[in-house]
Amino acid sequence: MSTAAIAHPKSFWREYVFSTDHKTIAKQYLSTGIFMALVGGLLAYVMRMQLAYPGQAIPGYGTIDPQSYNAVVTMHGTIMIFWVAMPILLAAFGNFLIPLMIGAADMAFPRLNMLSYWIFFLSTVVLLASFFVPGGAAAGGWTSYPPLSGSAAYSGGQWGVTLWLLAVAMEFAAFLMGGINFITTAINNRAPGMKLFDMPLMVWMQLGASIIFLFSVGPLIAGAVMLILDRVAATGFYNPATGGDPILFQHLFWFFGHPEVYVILLPGFGAVAEVLPVFSRKPFFGYRMMVYATIITGVLSFIVWAHHQFIAGIDPRLATAFSITTILISVPIAVMTFAFIATLYKGSIELKTPMLFALGTLVVFLLGGVTGIHLGTAATDIYLHDTYFVVAHFHYTLIPPVFFGFFAAWYYWFPKMFGRMLNEGLGKAHFWLTFIFMHVTFIPMFLLGFGGHHRRISNPQFFEAMQGPEAERLQIIATAGAIGILLSQIPFVVNSVLSLLRGAKAPANPWQANTLEWTVPSPPPHGNFETVPQVYRGPYEYSVPDRVDDWFPQDAKV
Amino acid sequence: MSSTGTPVARSEVIVPSRVLGMALFIATEALFFAGLISAFVVLRAQAIDWPPAGQPRLPIGVTGFNTLVLLASAWTMQQAAATLRRGEPQVRRLIMITAALGALFVGIQGYEWVNLVRYGLTTGSSLYGATFYTIVGAHGLHVLAAVISLIAAALIAPARSREGTDRTWLDPFRMYWFFVAGVWPVLYVLVYLS
User: Contact at 8 Å (CB) between B108 and B66?
Assistant: First the structure.
């Protein structure tokens, strides 16, 4: 990298819009992701209202027909996974933290990084535009299964799905650039003295997520290209009428789709791994075991995909094999969970807001993980497949890393990002409200799913099992919970805005943490480190005996 | 160690960043082609007859010659990189020869496509046509992109040689060219010969 790339830019455009500074790019990803979370949240509100009060006018929206309901379901899933989880957890925090945590001035390829954000921005515009085209947005589900998605008659006009595919393809191109940048930076730009096993777990997790993403996305792009061609060039890859095979798309999709779960999970766990030792004042329990568990999870995530297809007509012997690999992957995840819990054991625990969200991540994820066992086993999955049990399960597994993990990271690194402290009282209110309403929303969904509520059905009362007052009551409780989750974000927004404007100035190291990002001013200047730091030790040396301070920064020379 | 905050004197860099970055990109690209190939194999295994009756046969001979053109371009690319490493001045000409061979390859492919369409092989005529145009077309677009990257490399070559010190700047270009040239024989055997 030349020194010109590091030189501080002068103009407004170069500094705030077309910036190559990883911290600015992180904030751009973060703000786009938070905006899209709002869109995705409002779509969830529309969905929940329709399910609780089918056919009635939804305040602020009006009545919704089945076609639009399908579009709302599709876009909610698409947005929350690809335009919220990925940009916030991976792109925003990866960009902000990797260079700061490894003592680098910027990413390995700063201009590629800028290009990555702006392609992502364009993909966001294309996706949002698809709401307003004739026929409406894509309505084939976030998995976009053919033959439904291959035919305009079923999937919301000619434009919706084509724009959806285009937006997703552009988004993947953006994250491809980001992933290449993350891996190269973490491997090549570490400060002198920082060995691989001195890297904070957040960097390991970002590295793992990026590698999993890069190695899984290619087949999906191939599958998506064939789906686009089915729509525009009459190829018929997935059309049984011409000798094509719709199951082929499911394989290509889930070969990416299941590793993607871990792409989202790992950075959220990374944030938890940074927060727990700081607020327990203890070294991380089993640091190396955590790294190995991450690697094993990454490898196993590539051989579990067909558990999404148990009822798609795959060979039962194949289903058994995939049941086994699926249950096997819970072993490294359990190792991580136990490492988290052991880190807390006998620590001096301080329940600040980041710590509450980190603990919340573990509690909620545990429920999600346990219910996954029923779905990973082919025998029980055949009954539960495509019911609200699945919906509740994946919300219990994705909300912990995506929202609780994000909020843990937000409350923990906000002082570093913006140079201001957040209000603790509002933060705790935010946590408890979100945590309680999370369960109010999704526990009824487990019960509804067991009772036979299919997902992606605009009016559940079409089915006899969903007609009684009990089912109706559960639907209304879940809807009240969802509205509760949305309203619980008010303290978060108020807190963030007020703190940005009037919060107490943040010191360089407000939490007395060890990792390198806390050795520079808050917010860090352009170029991050005044001198290249020298690293002497691992990231989690807290409460070292015979030392006055209970923390021991990585660059402190004894 | 510098005091300006520039990332010099990093801890042990084994593979330079631009080579590592390109290697990761190529790995992703390889998996993209693996996805296409797996789809081809699955669809073909399920087909009743392949190629279907009434569909034209693919031009094995001309494309075989074209394969040699692309392999020759890999050789000239290697010569360009070796020349640069020795500090000799022929680099730019060798890059242009490589790009020209690549363009020739794409041109012959395009010419064959026109013939095949005239004989009735289109994306919609059969899965045979659909897989052919998708796989060969995806590869052709990759060669085209690589040709454009080589033209860019030829444009920056004079400035790079005036700076003089960096004798490995062509490496990522070479890696990508080797990838598009190296994946082609695999596709040729799979789609045309098997």
Answer: yes
Structure tokens at B45: 């295994």
Distance separating alpha carbons of residues A419 and A521, to the nearest angstrom: 8
Q: How far apart (Å, rounded) are the C-alpha atoms in residues B40 and B194?
A: 12
Which residue, among A205, A67, A201, has the nearest Cα to A138 in the 3D structure?
Answer: A67
Spatial CB neighbours of B2, under 8 Å, sequence gap ≥ 6: A532, B8, B9
Closest residue by Cα to residue A291 from A265, A278, A279, A273: A273
pLDDT tens profile B22-33: 999 999 999 999
pLDDT band at B10 (very low <50, low <70, confident <90, very high): low
In B, which residues are within 8 Å of A531 by CB distance? 1, 3, 5
Return mean pLDDT, chain A. Answer: 93
Question: Does pLDDT of B164 surpass 90?
Answer: no
Domains: count for chain A: 1
Render pLDDT for B120-149 as a digit per residue (tens, 0 to 9). 999 999 999 999 999 999 999 999 999 999
Does a structural domain hold residue A547?
A: no
> Which residues from B are below 8 Å from A191, CB to CB?
10-11
Instruction: Identify the weakest region by mean pLDDT among A36-45, A289-298, B26-35, B165-174.
Output: B165-174
Range with the poorest average pLDDT among A162-171, A413-422, A487-496, B140-149: A162-171
Please choose, from the candidates B150, B121, B8, B4, the residue with its C-alpha nearest in 3D space to the C-alpha of residue B56: B121
The three-class DSSP label of residue B3 is coil
Nearest residue to A84 (alpha-carbon basis) of A24, A35, A119: A35
Instruction: Taking each helix axis as running N to C, give the angle between helix A388-399 and helix A246-280, from 0 to 180 degrees, rounded to the nearest 10.
Output: 40
| Residue span of the structural domain in which A196 resides | 20-519
Q: Does residue A465 form part of some domain?
A: yes
Backbone angles phi, psi at A376, to 5 degrees: -75, -25
- The three-point CA angle A393-A173-A171 to 5° equals 45
pLDDT digits (tens, 9 = 90+) for A509-538: 999 999 999 999 999 999 999 999 999 999
Measure the N-to-C terminal CA separation of chain B; round to a whole number of Å: 58
The whole model's pTM is what? Answer: 0.93
- Beta carbons within 10 angstroms of residue A225's beta carbon: 21
Alpha helices (runs of H) in chain B, residue ranges in sequence order: 17-46, 60-86, 91-118, 127-163, 171-187
CA gap A542, A548 in Å, rounded: 11
Tell whether A477 is covered by a domain.
yes
Smallest Cβ–Cβ distance between A236 and the set B15, B48, B130 belongs to B130
Residue A546 lies in a domain: no
Average pLDDT over residues A263-275: 96
* CATH number of the domain that residue A138 is part of: 1.20.210.10
CATH number for the segment(s) B17-193: 1.20.120.80
Q: How many CA atoms lie within 13 A of A142 on its CB side?
A: 16
Mutation for testing the A interface, residue in B1, B8, B11, B163 having most A CBs under 10 Å: B11
Contact flag B34-A214 (C-beta cutoff 8 Å): no
The fraction of chain A above a pLDDT of 70, given in percent, is 98
Q: Which of B15, B39, B48 sits opposite A222 (nearest CB)?
A: B39
ipTM metric: 0.91
A217/B16 CB distance under 8 A: no
The first and second tokens of residue A522, run together, are: 């808050």
Please determine, for residue B179, whether its predicted confidence score (pLDDT) is greater than 60. Answer: yes
Q: pLDDT digit string (tens) for A110-128?
A: 999 999 999 999 999 999 9
| Closest chain A C-alpha to B120 CA, distance in angstroms | 14
Q: Which two tokens stand for residue A555?
A: 């660059």
